[in-house]
Amino acid sequence: MKKKTITSLLIILAVIICLIIAQRTLDSFSLRILNLSGVYIIFAVSMNLINGFTGQLTLGHAGFIAVGAYTYSLLIMDSDLKQMNFFLKPLISPLDTLQLGFFPAMIIAGLLAALTGFLVGAPALRLRGDYLAIATLGFGEIIRIIFTNTQSITNGSLGLKGIPKPDNFFFIKMDNSLMWWIWVAAIITVVFHLLLIDSSYGRAFKAIREDEKAAQAMGVSLFKHKVMAMVISSFFAGIGGALLASLIGTIDPLMFRFTLTYNILLIVVIGGMGSTSGATISAIVVTVLMEALRFLDQGFLGLPELPGLRMVVFAILLLIVVLFYPKGIMGNEELTWSKLRRLFGKPFAAKEVNR
Amino acid sequence: MTLLLEVKDMTMQFGGLTAVSNFNLRLNKGEIVGLIGPNGAGKTTCFNVITGEYIPTKGQIVFYISENVNGQIVSKEIDITRSRPDQITKLGIARTFQNIRLFKNLSVLENVLIANHLNVKSNFLTAAFKFPAYQREEREMREKSLELLKELGLEKFKNEKSSSLPYGLQRRLEIARALATQPKLLLLDEPAAGMNPQESIELMNLINQIKEKFDLTIFMIEHHMPVIMGVCERILVLDYGITIAEGTPKEIQNNQKVIDAYLGVETIA
Ligand SMILES: Nc1ncnc2c1ncn2[C@@H]1O[C@H](COP(=O)(O)OP(=O)(O)O)[C@@H](O)[C@H]1O
Ligand SMILES: [Mg+2]
Q1: Quick check: CB of B45 below 6 Å from ligand 1?
Q2: Cβ contacts (< 8 Å) between A213 and chain B: which residues?
Q3: pLDDT per residue over B102-130, tens digit each?
Q4: Domains of chain B from N-terminus onward
Q5: Chain B contact set for A192 (CB, 8 A)
Q6: Angle at which helices A276-292 and A177-197 cross, to 10°
């Protein structure tokens, strides 16, 4: 096995050990933040594929997440629960009685989101720059508005409540199986994106980001690769949406407003457009910080309650990052051992191995 | 002589501006043909039309490929007038750009590897998960690219960021990248621009060398008369989009119309 593979496996092992410790020691509030971080890793890493690596500024992520969340919820809830939720207008058949297990429901959520990604991407990706951003933003909003108005499928603005959590992880019953689903999905998402970017397709995506005309002159089909990146990206957004629905337990169309896309974009920009490890680190930092700063909203040091103060502080932090790290923490590079070594200086400075 | 590319009565207009009018060109296999003319004459526009960047207002572009049908070599004509640039590259026409367009943030090797992507058969899943078939493709791509870099004297820069190369080498890398798509026809847009006389001579040698080695046909735009005279067998002269002369370097040098067109712009050496 290559050295790179071994270190990757070691990192994954370390993460798993941390998770085992976390689930034994953390209280439920902290666990929730941990899980939310995992979900945001999936969101940020997948958005980074189309926005960071392929260089296509798209703002429809919330829409794909919504498709995933709703698909999952409608497939996982049992008929009694559905009847309770849909008291104004009954759910259409066969959805009213259909019920699937956690894993198939999540995968179908991803696939439907991917299909949506294709339907949005195929026309929109013919546009460039600001036009593309505006068009995808519009599509994202359209998805949300459709969900608000198709009451007999989505329950409209009432949303869905009591979405069950999985009670097993691949048929193994355990207390925190959702945490395992979320983090295994997050690890798979990160690993898959790293591997994809490390392939010929990843190079083609980057070529499009660097110079569309030159990429096309090198035989890279722009349309095919842009749509491909969009479909993969929205697949993972859908998976993340399913996990988010499961974690929060309640969804309604307002959750999938543009602010959600904006928050994910923020994570991607802070992490570095075109860096999977950057997006991962940033997703964790931002999610934890968002929660940790919650005390600001609730009034502190004798100050009155000021809802929104948290966002103000956050905006200032963002400004600082953008000022001092205009390319985000990682720029468009990945975190490597040699970089860590350089960061921590001499003690670790073994001879650089030429690869 | 076998015909490789034919441009028939091509006219390209941008709004009211006619950049090229009634351009005709027949390129035979193995030729090196030059395209010269003052700035703004429409030379790059000709390239852009041939490579599918623009669809011409009028006219037709035909590419001839020889196919092996049951052991017999059959020539087939393909109308590429409305094809996309990437489709045209796949058929076997590669180009370089007048203003260098490398993938600036990527390494020299990656720049060349990207030009191999058009031959990749694995899909994105088998490629991502590094299936054996993909690993073989990746290995072959790397070998071919490194060989090409060696051929063009760029091997020792393979891990450098492409934008960090000196100007002359960037032009070379653009040629390497174009060659990696395995073209039959290579279009070079002012490859000697910004080069000193020494570099120009090296470039001439390089052009002759790759032409033999890769069995190429070359169509090139160039301002440096010594380069054009040194490598081209035939020259076309454009002025305000109109083909004002065509012939051997000698004939062109003594053509009064050509001298007039260049007068005050540049004197022919
Ligand atoms: N995309 C375009 N839109 C409008 N005008 C163009 C375009 N491309 C080229 N032109 C015009 O066509 C003429 C020929 O340009 P070009 O082919 O670049 O000349 P050159 O012979 O110097 O390569 C110029 O007047 C240029 O301004
Ligand atoms: Mg030009």
Answers
A1: yes
A2: 53, 85, 97, 101
A3: 999 999 999 999 999 999 999 999 999 99
A4: 3-92+183-263 (3.40.50.300), 105-167 (no CATH)
A5: 128
A6: 150
